[in-house]
């Protein structure tokens, strides 16, 4: 049985635990992996940790940035693993939580549909 390995992957939340594991696995399988992170410090950390990963600084709540990134990269797969790791924080900031988990994903999906 063969498994599907996309040529180009965009991972949001790549700086987190699950995003990092996914990026490492995709890189090991030969995929071109791009990751969306919130700041340059996270981008630098990813460059040091994962050879071959291409970090992009941006915020999922910035619709234009997300759409432009997806348009420019034309990924085969977009994986949204971004989100707050604190349930309490999600209750304190429900709009931000919805923006990151749903609205940002919609921006990715809309543009990824080509």
Structure overview:
By secondary structure, the protein is of the alpha/beta class. The protein has one domain: 3-Layer(aba) Sandwich (Rossmann fold), CATH 3.40.50.720. Helix content is 51%, strand content 17%. The chain has five helices and four strands; from the N terminus they run E-H-E-H-E-H-E-H-H. It has helices at 17-28, 40-49, 63-73, 87-92, 94-112; strands at 8-12, 32-37, 54-57, 77-80. Strands 3-2-1-4 form a four-stranded parallel sheet, with helices on both faces. Helix 2 links the parallel strand 2 (32-37) and strand 3. The chain is globular, with a radius of gyration of 14 Å. It starts with 7 loop residues before the first strand and ends with a helix.
- Report helical residue fraction: 40-55%
Mean pLDDT rating: 83
| Rg, Å, rounded | 14 Å
Shape summary? globular
SSE class: alpha/beta
The first-level CATH class is given as Alpha Beta
Identify the notable features of this structure and list them briefly.
114 residues; alpha/beta; Rossmann fold; four-stranded parallel beta sheet; 5 helices
